[in-house]
Design goal:
This protein has 9 helices and 10 strands. By secondary structure, the chain is an alpha/beta fold. The strands form 2 sheets. An 8-stranded parallel sheet has the order 2-1-3-4-5-6-7-9. The chain has a two-stranded antiparallel sheet with strand order 8-10. Helix 2 links the parallel strand 3 and strand 4. The longest helix has 17 residues.
């Protein structure tokens, strides 16, 4: 694909997408709606995914029970995307989901919602609820964020993900198929973790191969008409009080260096079609919980250095598509 820039960046940034959709910058407000996860309550497992923090990856989320969100916004701020982030946000009775989703969508401080969940936590009733909400709030997008992390079954077992790749693909196919028919319009954003145990091979001739296979798989789904609207490329953070921290202490695995991570991100970006929005390139971690990699703690400097690296390498999204 030919080189393209979005707001001066060589990849389709979330900021550029927000401006296209809303005409102005929009930020996400992370929420903890009090849900659990089948990988924690004993339905699938009790310990959760090995990388997941005690807060269910909602370390910066505010407690939400349907209250107005305007008090959490600075004066004069634009409406936000209400991001149901902590734990699994379709894992509750449909009546509970309807109450909370509707409260967010009717809030004048909210211009849309984003639902972080697992592909094995959908039902016909939930699809019907999402369809009802899309009909009732046609001007407020509803994003579905699915935690894939990796396409490799061996890694999925190692991190206790709790479902096979076929479940993810079936969920994406269903959402994409329904969107094409016009019955649903639920953009899918996929979470991928880069640097999982066993997938960074620094002593190999192809140190990034397993991770690039995950990106290639998503690009191939997209090419086959199973639309992936966005992707989050999350650097693996090893946090204290997680199973992953225990694993690292007992059976050390290599952690991505900063320079290797920059090269890996360039490789990933070059494989992604230009209509996939890149929502994240590294991620945040609470500094008091971050064990590794320590270099990731200063996100602003990391992103500045990454953008310089992209410029030197002459990387752009879709370069290898």
């Amino acid at each position: 694909m030919e080189k393209k820039l979005w707001d001066g960046r060589p990849y389709y940034t979330l900021g550029a997408y927000m401006k296209e959709q809303f005409g102005h910058p929009v930020r996400k407000l992370a929420l903890d709606a009090g849900f659990s996860c089948p990988n924690r309550d004993g339905t699938i497992g009790t310990g959760g995914c090995t990388f997941c923090s005690i807060d269910g990856s909602g370390d910066f989320a505010i407690s939400y029970h349907g209250q107005p969100l305007a008090p959490y916004l600075a004066e004069g701020n634009n409406p936000v995307i209400a991001y149901f982030q902590a734990f699994t946000n379709t894992y509750a009775p449909v009546d509970t989901l309807k109450k909370l989703y509707t409260a967010a969508l009717t809030d004048p401080a909210v211009c849309g919602i984003s639902i972080a969940t697992r592909p094995d936590c959908f039902s016909e009733d939930i699809y019907a609820l999402l369809d009802e909400l899309r009909t009732n709030f046609p001007d407020k997008p509803i994003w579905i964020e699915l935690g894939l992390q990796t396409v490799h079954e061996e890694t999925a077992v190692r991190i206790h993900r709790g479902y096979p790749l076929s479940v993810f693909e079936e969920c994406c196919h269903r959402l994409s198929e329904l969107a094409v028919t016009g019955h649903y319009d639920l953009p899918v954003i996929v979470h991928v973790i880069l640097g999982l145990p066993g997938e960074y091979l620094p002593d190999s001739s192809s140190p990034f191969r397993p991770m690039l296979e995950t990106i290639g798989y998503l690009a191939s789904l997209h090419a086959r008409g199973i639309r992936i609207a966005g992707i989050k490329l999350q650097l693996l953070h090893v946090l204290s009080e997680t199973q992953l921290a225990d694993e690292m202490r007992s059976d050390s695995f290599p952690i991505l260096t900063r320079e290797d991570y920059f090269d890996l991100l360039c490789d990933c970006i070059e494989l992604l079609p230009q209509d996939i929005v890149i929502h994240r390139l590294t991620g945040d971690a609470p500094r008091d919980l971050l064990i590794a990699p320590k270099w990731s703690g200063d996100k602003k400097n990391v992103l500045n250095a990454l953008h310089h690296h992209m410029k030197i390498r002459d990387t752009w999204q879709g370069k290898q598509v």
